[in-house]
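Kindly inspect the following:
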Amino acid sequence: MTFTITTTETPQQQDVKTLEYGLTGFNEADVGPSNRRPLAVMIHGEAGALISGLAGYTAWGWLYVQWLWVAENHRGRGMAGRMLAAAEQEAQQRGCHGAFIDTFNPKAEIVYQRAGYEPFGTLPDFPMGRRRVFLQKRLGVGEVFSPA
Protein backbone atom coordinates (compact mmCIF):
# COMPACT_ATOMS: atom_id res chain seq x y z
CA MET A 1 0.00 0.00 0.00
CA THR A 2 1.29 3.43 -0.95
CA PHE A 3 0.29 6.57 0.95
CA THR A 4 1.42 10.10 1.64
CA ILE A 5 1.50 12.02 4.91
CA THR A 6 0.71 15.72 4.71
CA THR A 7 1.10 18.27 7.50
CA THR A 8 -0.79 21.54 7.00
CA GLU A 9 -2.34 24.46 8.83
CA THR A 10 -4.97 24.77 6.10
CA PRO A 11 -6.69 21.38 5.84
CA GLN A 12 -9.49 20.87 3.34
CA GLN A 13 -12.83 21.28 5.12
CA GLN A 14 -14.08 18.05 3.54
CA ASP A 15 -11.10 16.20 5.01
CA VAL A 16 -11.85 17.61 8.48
CA LYS A 17 -15.52 16.59 8.09
CA THR A 18 -14.41 13.08 7.09
CA LEU A 19 -12.35 12.87 10.30
CA GLU A 20 -15.29 14.15 12.36
CA TYR A 21 -17.79 11.72 10.86
CA GLY A 22 -15.34 8.81 11.04
CA LEU A 23 -14.53 9.33 14.72
CA THR A 24 -18.16 10.07 15.61
CA GLY A 25 -19.27 6.86 13.89
CA PHE A 26 -16.59 4.84 15.65
CA ASN A 27 -17.42 6.29 19.08
CA GLU A 28 -21.16 5.79 18.67
CA ALA A 29 -20.62 2.17 17.65
CA ASP A 30 -18.35 1.73 20.67
CA VAL A 31 -20.29 3.49 23.47
CA GLY A 32 -23.58 4.67 21.95
CA PRO A 33 -24.77 8.04 20.72
CA SER A 34 -23.35 11.13 22.42
CA ASN A 35 -26.49 13.23 22.04
CA ARG A 36 -24.14 16.20 21.65
CA ARG A 37 -25.93 19.53 21.84
CA PRO A 38 -24.49 23.05 21.99
CA LEU A 39 -25.14 25.08 25.13
CA ALA A 40 -24.55 28.80 25.63
CA VAL A 41 -25.33 31.36 28.33
CA MET A 42 -25.01 35.02 27.38
CA ILE A 43 -25.23 38.19 29.46
CA HIS A 44 -26.00 41.41 27.61
CA GLY A 45 -25.76 44.91 29.05
CA GLU A 46 -28.42 47.60 28.93
CA ALA A 47 -27.37 48.69 25.42
CA GLY A 48 -27.56 45.09 24.22
CA ALA A 49 -23.82 44.52 23.96
CA LEU A 50 -22.48 41.15 25.08
CA ILE A 51 -20.65 41.63 28.39
CA SER A 52 -20.18 37.97 29.40
CA GLY A 53 -20.71 34.58 27.89
CA LEU A 54 -20.27 30.85 28.26
CA ALA A 55 -20.27 28.34 25.41
CA GLY A 56 -19.82 24.61 25.31
CA TYR A 57 -21.86 21.49 24.81
CA THR A 58 -23.44 18.51 26.49
CA ALA A 59 -22.55 14.97 25.46
CA TRP A 60 -22.60 11.51 27.05
CA GLY A 61 -24.14 12.91 30.23
CA TRP A 62 -21.54 15.65 30.71
CA LEU A 63 -21.45 19.41 30.31
CA TYR A 64 -18.20 20.71 28.84
CA VAL A 65 -17.64 24.45 29.29
CA GLN A 66 -15.37 25.26 26.38
CA TRP A 67 -15.30 29.06 26.73
CA LEU A 68 -16.22 31.36 29.61
CA TRP A 69 -15.52 35.07 29.31
CA VAL A 70 -16.44 38.13 31.38
CA ALA A 71 -15.65 41.62 30.08
CA GLU A 72 -12.90 43.14 32.20
CA ASN A 73 -15.05 45.97 33.60
CA HIS A 74 -17.67 43.43 34.77
CA ARG A 75 -15.35 40.99 36.56
CA GLY A 76 -15.74 40.45 40.30
CA ARG A 77 -19.54 40.71 40.16
CA GLY A 78 -20.36 37.00 40.24
CA MET A 79 -21.22 36.72 36.55
CA ALA A 80 -19.07 33.63 35.98
CA GLY A 81 -20.79 31.83 38.85
CA ARG A 82 -24.24 32.80 37.56
CA MET A 83 -23.43 31.62 34.05
CA LEU A 84 -22.03 28.33 35.36
CA ALA A 85 -25.16 27.80 37.48
CA ALA A 86 -27.43 28.48 34.49
CA ALA A 87 -25.43 26.12 32.25
CA GLU A 88 -25.42 23.42 34.94
CA GLN A 89 -29.18 23.73 35.39
CA GLU A 90 -29.75 23.34 31.65
CA ALA A 91 -27.31 20.42 31.55
CA GLN A 92 -29.22 18.67 34.35
CA GLN A 93 -32.46 19.18 32.42
CA ARG A 94 -30.72 17.44 29.53
CA GLY A 95 -29.88 14.52 31.82
CA CYS A 96 -26.24 15.36 32.57
CA HIS A 97 -24.64 14.10 35.77
CA GLY A 98 -21.31 15.95 35.56
CA ALA A 99 -19.56 19.05 34.24
CA PHE A 100 -15.96 19.88 33.41
CA ILE A 101 -13.91 22.91 32.46
CA ASP A 102 -10.23 23.76 32.05
CA THR A 103 -8.14 26.89 32.48
CA PHE A 104 -4.59 28.13 32.77
CA ASN A 105 -5.66 31.31 34.58
CA PRO A 106 -5.11 31.05 38.37
CA LYS A 107 -7.92 33.55 39.08
CA ALA A 108 -10.37 31.58 36.96
CA GLU A 109 -9.36 28.39 38.77
CA ILE A 110 -10.38 30.01 42.07
CA VAL A 111 -13.72 31.12 40.58
CA TYR A 112 -14.44 27.59 39.34
CA GLN A 113 -13.52 26.05 42.69
CA ARG A 114 -15.87 28.49 44.43
CA ALA A 115 -18.57 27.20 42.08
CA GLY A 116 -17.93 23.65 43.31
CA TYR A 117 -15.48 22.39 40.70
CA GLU A 118 -12.55 20.24 41.85
CA PRO A 119 -9.25 19.75 40.00
CA PHE A 120 -8.61 16.30 38.55
CA GLY A 121 -5.59 16.86 36.37
CA THR A 122 -2.97 19.34 35.21
CA LEU A 123 -0.63 19.94 32.29
CA PRO A 124 2.56 21.73 33.36
CA ASP A 125 3.95 24.56 31.20
CA PHE A 126 0.72 25.04 29.24
CA PRO A 127 1.53 27.79 28.42
CA MET A 128 5.15 27.97 29.52
CA GLY A 129 5.38 28.99 33.16
CA ARG A 130 1.72 28.19 33.85
CA ARG A 131 -0.25 25.00 34.26
CA ARG A 132 -3.51 24.06 32.60
CA VAL A 133 -5.93 22.74 35.21
CA PHE A 134 -8.87 20.45 34.46
CA LEU A 135 -11.78 20.67 36.91
CA GLN A 136 -14.98 18.65 37.32
CA LYS A 137 -18.21 18.82 39.25
CA ARG A 138 -20.94 16.30 39.89
CA LEU A 139 -24.27 17.85 39.02
CA GLY A 140 -27.26 17.61 41.29
CA VAL A 141 -25.47 15.89 44.15
CA GLY A 142 -22.55 18.13 45.14
CA GLU A 143 -20.03 15.29 44.90
CA VAL A 144 -16.97 15.18 42.71
CA PHE A 145 -16.23 12.33 40.35
CA SER A 146 -13.02 10.46 40.93
CA PRO A 147 -11.27 9.80 37.63
CA ALA A 148 -10.87 6.12 36.87
